[in-house]
Amino acid sequence: MHVITQPTTQQLDKFYTAQPWVPVQQTPPWYRFQTAGLNKEAYQIAVTDADRILISGMYTIEHTHLNTKFAYFPRGPVIDHALYDASAELQDGLKLLTQQVFANHSEISFIRIEPALPNTVDNQNKLRDIGYKALPANIQVQRSWVVGLFTDKDMGMEEKLAFMRQHGMKSNVKGKIRKAHRSGVQIEDYIGDIEKTKEFLELLHRTAARQEFPLFPDDYYLQQAKILGETQNMKIYMAYYEGKLMAGAMVAIFGKRAWYLHGASNARERKNNIQIPRYLHWRIMNDMVGLGVTQYDMLGVNSEEKMIPSHPNYGFSQFKRSFGGREEVYVLPHDIVRGGVLNRVKHGVEYLRHWIRKKKYHLDY
Question: What pLDDT does 53 receive?
Answer without folding.
Answer: 95
